[in-house]
Design brief:
By secondary structure, the chain is mainly β. The protein has helices spanning 9-13, 15-27, 43-48, 52-62, 201-205, and strands at residues 81-90, 112-122, 125-134, 147-153, 161-167, 188-197, 212-227, 232-249, 252-261, 274-280, 288-294, 316-324.
């Protein structure tokens, strides 16, 4: 399944990346602070324990690191590759129609197979790309990509910043005459900050002993986006999003992301107020992941959603296998 590049592309094609980050981060949620000194306990030992503010500063200050000194001793280049193959099955099969030339639009209604590859450049800097195969080529719309790509910095550790560029528009391996393979200006820049949900909040929100929650706050900027009302491209779509994943037990999870549009007039029928998903996710290579995800035009008020979007049936099921070299 693919989706319009505006706003939610980052949480779509890199869903496994986000799941990995939030899973690992949630496990490291801060513990409650120590009680006052007990008999025989020295103040030096208490002072040496890092506080939550220390952990926040450590995460913030270590963001965007470029560890050139580890280049020679780090992982060999051929082991920096990882990837996954996936099958996507949309629950709805009604094709959508938009004006010719649109490179962003509703969720794909076509069964797909994808191959994703990620290369870790240095530290937590990376580049990744995904190639798509559509089982029914006649249903591939102009905004359904042949390939997508992402690059930037993302660290799973809590309290770290991330900076990503993602492009999920109608990229083509063989574009029509006069068209480009990709429209770089129609990609989305996202600046994010990760944080775990610690005690006592996790005790109130979780119904399992193993429950853990990791979240990410993002500012998203798309320089150029397609406006359905005018059938033209406009500039400067901006959103703020908050996404959280609740690891229920083991690798079973549920997640959701809410979006706020700084200019509500820029929101298209396929741009959601929120997205959600659930399933079984294992970040380790050589494992199988099964997920349901819904990135359609979900609305807090269901009466405001567009036609044939924002319903449970507008989501899709995917099965993927991850690997390394």
């Amino acid at each position: 399944m693919s989706i319009g590049l505006s706003t939610i592309g980052l949480f779509y094609a890199t869903d496994s990346l986000a799941n990995n980050h939030q899973t690992q981060m949630a496990k490291h949620a801060p513990k409650p602070q120590s009680s006052p000194l007990s008999v025989g306990e020295s103040s030096e030992n208490i002072a040496s324990d890092p506080t939550q503010l220390d952990e926040i500063w450590q995460g913030v200050s270590s963001s965007f690191a470029l560890p050139f000194f580890t280049w020679d001793a780090d992982t060999p280049w051929y082991k920096r590759w990882s990837g996954n193959i996936s099958l996507g099955y949309p629950l709805a099969d009604t094709p959508e129609v938009l004006p010719a030339g649109a490179t962003s639009g509703p969720s794909n209604q076509n069964k797909t197979a994808t191959l994703s590859l990620k290369y870790s450049i240095l530290g937590n800097w990376f580049i990744s790309a995904t190639a798509y195969y559509y089982f029914d080529a006649d249903l591939q719309q102009s905004w359904n990509p042949d390939y997508t790509y992402v690059f930037g910095y993302s660290d799973w550790r809590p309290y770290t910043f991330s900076l990503l560029y993602s492009n999920y528009g109608g990229n083509r391996f063989s574009p029509e005459p006069g068209q480009k393979s990709t429209e770089f200006g129609q990609g989305t820049w996202s600046l994010g900050w990760k944080f775990p949900v610690g005690e006592p909040w996790i005790d109130w929100l979780s119904f399992t002993d193993e429950g853990a929650i990791g979240c990410q706050l993002d500012y998203n900027y798309t320089p150029e986006f397609f406006d359905l009302a005018s059938s033209e491209y406009h500039t400067g779509q901006q959103t703020i999003s908050l996404g959280c994943k609740y690891a229920i037990i083991g690798n079973w999870y549920v997640n959701g992301t809410a979006f706020y549009y700084l200019d509500s007039s820029q929101k298209q029928p396929w741009n959601p107020d929120y997205t959600y998903g659930f399933g079984y996710f294992d970040w380790r290579p050589g494992t199988i992941t099964v997920q349901y995800n819904n990135y359609s035009g979900n609305r807090w008020n269901s009466s405001e959603r567009g036609e044939d979007t924002g319903r449970f049936i507008d989501g899709s099921i995917s099965i993927s296998y991850s690997f390394t070299f």
